[in-house]
Amino acid sequence: MSLLWLLLMICAFSGDSGGGGGPGGFIQMAVAEHVRDLEVSEGVPIGHQIGFIGEFVHDDSGDSGPPYLIVPVPGSAVDTDLAIDHTTGEIRTKVALDRENRSSYSLVAIPLSGENVRVVVRVLDENDNAPTFPTPIMSIEFPENTPRDVKRTLNPARDADLGRYNTQRYSIVSGNVNNAFRLSSHRERDGVLYLDLQINGFLDRETTPAYSLVVEALDGGSPPLRGQMTVNITIQDVNDNQPIFNQSRYFATVPENATLGTTVLQVYATDQDAGENGQVEYAINRRQSDKEQMFRIDPSTGLISVNKPLDFETRELHELVVVAKDRGMQPLETTAFVSIRVTDVNDNQPIINVIFLSDDATPKISESAQPGEFVARISVNDPDSRTEYSNVNVTLSGGEGHFGLTTRDNIIYLVIVSLPLDREIKPNYTLSVIATDTGNPPLHAAKDIFLTVTDINDNAPEFEKDVYHANVMEVADPGTSVIQVTAIDRDEGNNSAIVYSLLDTPDTHSHWFQIDSHSGLITTRAHIDCETDPVPQLIVMAQDNGRPPLSSTGTVLVTIHDVNDNEPIFDQSFYNVSVAENESKGRCILKGNIWAD
Asked: Could you give the strand order of the β-sheet that contains 521-524, starting from the edge strand earlier in sequence?
């Protein structure tokens, strides 16, 4: 088509060839031209009319009007993106235009005569691009002592649109706890609105160690398009907190015969800072206390232990000044006072003897035991005392109130039942007998009793259901499985062993069925008949092996499904009837019954 059009153009100008290179020549005409500017918004529908090549061209321009020979400027994508009617000069869109990909199109329209028309189609911007951050997440750090107004540069959002449709402002939409930060921005020559994050208050890592800000960029559209970025801010620690002891003064006692290395007590201090700024070391201030170094302290754990032999008669009380210091570049420290009292030696603990009063002298008690019944006999002696039965205080703990301790002479103690027992609720108890002598300081001895509650047959078997429903065909052979019932017994041993049986109920045809005494599986014993009893009712009994045995019953309703196993039967084998000779047609002369099971 382009070749044909070129031939037509050559023919059109051939009439002026005699004039040589005169004004009518093709070469001279191709040099003269005027410009036609057109505009179209990006995103208009395909086929949208942009305008006409010759529209509003003045008559003195020398343009003869359409048809035109269209010559696109190389690389301007006119052929692919625009539809140009050379016969009318109309220009329409062939594809959806995108200013961000191509902002203008250029072509030259050559008429049959007159000046050429240089057409420039400019694509106008629309707000079709949201501001976009280069990364969805950005991480920065601030030391917690950073002054107010200090800023960090954040990645700016970029918007492919122009002018007011470009990025116009930023805001923090969430995560700005206590309004700790604010944003500032400035636009540079490249048109990008650059972004800074500034400190707006005071940062404290111990209060808020990190922030996660959601920063939003908005353009100037109506409504504006938005883009978001998450800024994760880590607050770096500085050594601004001194260690703090959990007590300002500590008290402890230690016997005078304590061996070297015996732990006396542990001091404990915490530092809210992080890393080495929060690591605490302990020391004893030897200039102010314990110059004889009778005690030492573990610098990491704060454990104070005996460093030299102690003597109650020489010195009864030791006062220590303990220092807790962190490991910061400029360490901070605090002090606490420790009072250690050396006690005279009472170096023998009471001895506890327990005799269980069960039939085999083992630690057990029946769940049927009544309040006041004896469980064990306890006697205590103290090697430090000259008497056989020393005056030792005995206490009993544990048992959840089901057991108590009684004595008449503070010499022999009896463990008794205080509350009713139930093995099925709690089968074992741990009791602790504590004996305290009258020494100074008193010594303690403890002995644990692991008591077992033995079972009695106080729980009957319980079926999973009160009523079971089963289905079986009328033609089922003897031995066909019907249903399996299950009962449980909360007792143990023989008291929980269950035997199943069917109660003999002839009126409900229980003889048709049988049950496995161990598994509870019910099967047919004989042929069953739906016509005789369509829903036999069975009574199952579950009985344990206790002495005496306990039992319970459950009901099984068996639905027998009928099959066609009976032929129809007349109610009598011979019928005799008389009829008058003038009886009208259709009159009933005999009515009999036919039975079908």
From this structure: 481-484, 521-524, 513-515
Return left, alpha or beta for 47; rule: phi > 0 is left, psi -120 to 50 is alpha, else beta: left
Task: Please say whether the beta carbons of 298 and 280 come within 8 A.
Answer: no
Three-state DSSP at 231 gives strand
Q: Is the pLDDT of residue 17 over 60?
A: no
31-74 per-position pLDDT tens digit? 467 888 888 888 788 888 888 887 654 445 556 678 889 888 88
The predicted structure's pLDDT at residue 145: 84
Specify the pLDDT at position 293. Answer: 94
Reference 352, options 382, 324, 308; nearest CA is 382
Is pLDDT above 50 for 472?
yes
Q: Give the integer Cα–Cα distance in Å for 517 and 194.
A: 88
Give the C-alpha separation, 542 to 552, whole Å: 6
Distance CA 109, CA 515 (A): 106
- State the DSSP code for 500: E
**Domains of the chain, first to last:** 35-124 (2.60.40.60), 137-236 (2.60.40.60), 244-343 (2.60.40.60), 351-454 (2.60.40.60), 462-561 (2.60.40.60)
- Name the one residue in this structure whose structure tokens are 């009962």: 487
